[in-house]
Amino acid sequence: MSNSQVIPLSRPDISQGDIRAVTDVLRSGRLSLGPAMDTFEDMMAERVGSSDAVAVSSGTAGLHLILEALNVGPGDEVITPAFSFVASANCIEHAGATPVFVDCDPITLNVKAEDVEALITERTKAIIGVEVFGNPTGMRELAALSAKHEIPLIEDACEGLGGRIGDDAIGTFGRAAVFAFYPNKQITTGEGGMIVTNDTHLADACRSMRNHGRNMSSRTGPASTGTRLDVDRLGWNYRMSELHAALGVSQLSRLDQIMEQRSMVADTYTRELSKVSDLIVPTIGHDVTMSWFVYVVRLSAPYTQEDRNEIIDGLRRHDIGAANYFPAIHLFPHYQRKYGLSEGDFPVAESVSQRTIALPMFVGLTETEIKLVCQTLSLMMTRSRFRHED
């Protein structure tokens, strides 16, 4: 996306307090494994309601570490959505296991528990459940299925920080969950992620592995991830720096305010776009509190993927950020080649992925700007219809 666009697809909400928090760390001289990371982990654990939180370099790193902590590896299968960001499948490959894809529900865009259950075999070592676009619908059912079959549920909560179903917070449904803080997320650390869990043994394994597998026996505090050179397992450099953590602390302290402002943007979109024919706006359950990550609409079936791409190009030509969200994972060349997957294997995921359009979503987007986005989208859709009639 060009930086010259008048209304970008996303924009991080950076306050003066955020900037001070980062510069304070720079002045402190402690840039890694310090008090900012401790504080961020404590705040995240309290926010979600978990006993442990482990800060890492990305959401993808967090998912990988959980799989490793659960001893998932070659010969094992992990069930994961075909419609998601590719990281939810890539982490399985990093662990050496086999991803088993499942189609999505056409309304919620999440997987259904009964579809997951049909894929469980004696080789199934874990289930990755994703709150697509931050919608937790179906996670209770996945948690019940996980308990029934005694298979760990890993909650890919990277898009849903702050969301809930009733009184159940996103991040509490699985054996462990992962949040991510890329700049387009509700809160950002620039790059970074957070594992949350009530399994202290799993948390300690992740703490060790994020720091090269260092021994945890001499750990004296949350930030002291083992002795400096004593390594007792395979690990990676998946640490979060103090700079990233300090930004996370400052951002997390404003999460409720950020969620409220993003919800106002989403409500305005829904009000304006519900009047547009051939357009499907997000469907949110009555008991769901959304923490809006993106605002994604779908074109109805008469529109093709080519139509969708032309509409996105039209929005961009009018200086409005737009993107397709997400391509179906099983159609990426790597997965097609390695597992013999092809078009038609997961028809709902494919149909949805061909018609999604992500619209600008960020704090500070005005009602006038939202209406301009909606009017331009409607115009581009009308142009597309006229082109077919010709």
Annotate the secondary structure layout:
Elements: H1 16-28, H2 35-48, E1 52-56, H3 59-69, E2 77-81, H4 87-94, E3 98-102, H5 113-117, E4 124-130, H6 139-149, E5 153-156, E6 164-165, E7 168-169, E8 176-180, E9 193-197, H7 200-210, H8 242-252, H9 255-273, E10 279-280, E11 288-289, E12 295-299, H10 305-317, H11 333-339, H12 347-353, E13 356-359, H13 367-389
Parallel strand pairs: 2-3, 2-4, 4-5, 5-8
Antiparallel strand pairs: 1-9, 6-7, 6-11, 8-9, 10-12, 12-13
Task: Kindly describe this structure.
The strands form three sheets. This protein has a seven-stranded mixed sheet, with helices on both faces. It contains 13 helices and 13 strands. The protein is of the alpha/beta class and 390 residues long. Residues 222-226 have low confidence and may be disordered. It is globular. It has two domains: 16-252, 3-Layer(aba) Sandwich (Aspartate Aminotransferase, domain 2); 255-389, Aspartate Aminotransferase, domain 1 (Alpha-Beta Complex).
* Strand composition percent: 5-15%
Structural class assignment? alpha/beta
Radius of gyration: 21 Å
Euclidean distance between termini CA atoms = 31 Å
How many helices does DSSP assign? 13
Q: Could you give the order of the helices and strands?
A: HHEHEHEHEHEEEEEHHHEEEHHHEH
How are the strands of the biggest sheet laid out side by side? 1-9-8-5-4-2-3
CATH class of the largest domain: Alpha Beta
* Number of extended strands: 13
Q: Main beta sheet: strand number and arrangement? A: 7 strands, mixed
The best one-word shape is globular
Specify the helix fraction band: 25-40%
The overall average pLDDT, rounded, is: 95
Question: What is the CATH homologous superfamily assignment of the largest domain?
Answer: Type I PLP-dependent aspartate aminotransferase-like (Major domain)
Q: How many structurally independent domains?
A: 2
Low-confidence stretches: 222-226
What fold name goes in the CATH topology slot of the largest domain? Aspartate Aminotransferase, domain 2
Corresponding CATH architecture of the largest domain: 3-Layer(aba) Sandwich
